[in-house]
């Protein structure tokens, strides 16, 4: 970790997070001791197989469920154990949540622009230009007076992103933001998230099944499996342990992050018996 990383306190900090669902007398451990620290301005992609615990982690971060154990701090607010009133304050200012079903973020009979203005708390009313927010997500002017029920799925997704970033939250949590989209629509959404990150400094934590989305976002990729963080690939790289025979074990997690055909480079890791694997870029020899 660099000196700068040490100097800036994390915007999201999770310690020993455990989430147990009680189901007909049976306990399901969805999260089994998750520790996570996210710096301001980072884009984090949460990846992993179905049932890994990704949505549960996002829900706990969003304050939508109280964890069975552990601590969660977001933008200086202690979320665990908060009462609903204080959580609403946090969600209305420092934290924004983009649900998987974005229709829940929007009112269908209001226009695109009205949906943006609607979410503004009193302190922000009139102080932000809705068009500036719509510019960031890339919705053209002619679509802004249209009711949301008549626009395409991709524009609806962009409207929902605009509505969530309109209050200038420190942290945006997004559950599968591109899941119902394809091709250029996916790119429109990743571009919108990247612009929010660059222009507003929004820290983004997004659950995604799509590693191409993680790559397009140039995200720190965190792989979750069986309720634990298995891999944390900062800056598109990951540290792997070399076996005694000098080979590198290609586990499912590594394959998940670097699917067959992905060009990678290797360099020695922090410890003598580790290597850092990272996606090769155009500049790599
Ligand atoms: N409300 C619930 N009640 C009981 N068990 C649940 C509940 N929600 C999730 N689980 C269980 O917790 C574990 C983690 O689920 P979670 O939805 O967080 O995983 P996920 O990685 O988001 O999966 P997916 O990619 O399929 O959405 C799974 O075993 C799941 O069956």
Describe the structure.
This protein has 285 residues and is an alpha/beta fold. It is built from nine helices and 13 strands. β4 and β5 form a beta hairpin. α5 (130-137) packs across α6 (153-165). The protein is globular. The structure holds adenosine-5'-triphosphate. Adenosine-5'-triphosphate binds at residues 21, 23, 28, 30, 48, 50-56. Adenosine-5'-triphosphate (ATP) binds next to β1, β2 and α2. Keywords: ATP-binding, Nucleotide-binding. This is ABC transporter domain-containing protein.
The number of E-state strands comes to: 13
Instruction: Report helical residue fraction.
Output: 25-40%
Give the strand line-up of the largest sheet: 6-7-8-3-9-10
Indicate the radius of gyration in whole angstroms: 20 Å
Q: Bound small molecules, which ones?
A: adenosine-5'-triphosphate
Salient structural properties:
ABC transporter domain-containing protein; 285 residues; binds adenosine-5'-triphosphate; nucleotide-binding; ATP hydrolysis activity; 4-stranded antiparallel β-sheet; AAA+_ATPase; transmembrane transporter activity
What's this model, at a glance?
By secondary structure, the chain is of the alpha/beta class.
Topology:
Layout: H1 3-7, E1 12-23, E2 26-38, E3 43-47, H2 54-61, E4 69-74, E5 77-78, H3 84-93, E6 95-98, H4 112-118, H5 130-137, H6 153-165, E7 171-175, H7 184-200, E8 203-207, H8 211-216, E9 220-225, E10 228-233, E11 237-241, H9 252-257, E12 264-268, E13 274-279
Parallel strand pairs: 3-8, 3-9, 6-7, 7-8
Antiparallel strand pairs: 1-2, 1-4, 4-5, 9-10, 11-13, 12-13
Adenosine-5'-triphosphate is lined by residues 21, 23, 28, 30, 48, 50-56.
